[in-house]
Write a structure and sequence with these properties.
Order of helices and strands: HEEEEHEHEHEEEHEEHHHH
Helix content: 25-40%
Number of helices: 9
Number of strands: 11
Mean pLDDT: 92
CATH superfamily of the largest domain: Vaccinia Virus protein VP39
Strand content: 15-25%
Shape: globular
Low-confidence stretches: none
Bound molecules: S-adenosylmethionine
Structural class: alpha/beta
Radius of gyration: 20 Å
Length: 269
């Protein structure tokens, strides 16, 4: 994958997205976990003619990213709020192509994210994944990465210390999965939705259980409120946040080489 293709033709490593989208009626693309990278191009090339693409950039940190765009007066499209775990609530089942690059392994349940994305696709639509392999192992399961994404004998494998899921086997006839390890090590998967939502195999239904989602979200909200309503805790958090900002400000002034050395040391710790 590479960054900032905004203003140019859609281009994805290991998948001819332009050719695929030209086969689609009113193609609609969602770049999920987009950050502020605008890595997916926003035009189609139809026999040399550049056509603007209906593309949506989506991220759970949308509010923060939009604030940055506003602050620095960037004339780029706003980032829409949405996250992989509940993707079908943000995309109304009409996507031709959903791309998730370097973000699925940040989520609390990558398999749920894949199934949610399949629900959000139209029939024949493609979920495109591009990730660095085994990030959780590399980072010793600290921080965001709690799952590894890998390829074994052409199969997409999502695993951690307690489970290992062969994605193609789990999805069965609902979707085809083509996975490859690129020369630069990236794991690219092209997952094509075959059936409609009704034919979703029973083992997948638990991943798109809206009642369970509501219960989980209420619990998270109330747990957050319980842990964050004390004045003392709020003051502690504000102090920590202030300290974090000071450290970040000072770190920005360090030379690049030194910054990378410190980052490596933190990763090893
Ligand atoms: C390493 S950045 C990747 C940005 C961009 N896709 C790229 O490849 O340059 C990871 C992004 O994933 C987003 N993210 C984290 N958890 C997510 C989730 N559960 N669903 C969707 N995006 C998530 C983060 O907010 C962040 O913007």
């Amino acid at each position: 994958m590479s960054w900032a293709h905004y203003g140019s033709v859609i281009s994805l490593e290991g998948f001819d997205a332009n050719a695929f989208l030209l086969t689609q009626d009113h193609p609609k693309v969602y770049d999920v976990g987009a950050g502020l990278s605008y890595a997916v191009g926003d035009h189609l090339d139809k026999e040399g003619e550049l056509i603007p693409l209906d593309i949506h950039y989506m991220d759970p940190l949308a509010n923060y990213f939009n604030r940055i765009l506003k602050k620095y007066k960037k004339t780029l499209p706003a980032v829409e709020f949405g996250m992989t775990e509940y993707l079908s609530a943000f995309i109304p089942g009409d996507a031709s192509l959903i791309t998730i690059q370097n973000a699925l392994d940040h989520s609390s349940s990558p398999i749920k994210g894949i199934v949610e994305a399949l629900v959000a696709l139209r029939e024949g639509g493609v979920l495109y994944l591009n990730h660095h392999p085994n990030e959780a192992e590399i980072e010793h399961y600290k921080g965001f990465h709690q799952y590894n994404i890998d390829e074994t004998a052409g199969e997409l494998v999502i695993w951690n210390q307690s489970e290992k899921i062969y994605v193609g086997r789990l999805l069965g006839a609902f979707a085809s999965v083509e996975t490859k390890r690129m020369d630069n090590g990236h794991i690219v998967s092209i997952i094509r939705k075959q059936g409609d939502d009704v034919s979703m195999p029973a083992p997948l239904c638990k991943y798109v259980d809206h009642q369970a989602d509501k219960a989980e979200l209420c619990e998270v909200l109330l747990r957050y409120q319980f842990h964050n309503t004390s004045l003392v805790k709020n003051m502690k958090n504000s102090f920590r946040f202030g300290m974090f900002n000071v450290v970040q400000f000072l770190a920005q002034m360090l030379p690049w080489n030194l910054k990378m050395k410190v980052k490596r040391l933190i990763k090893q710790a």
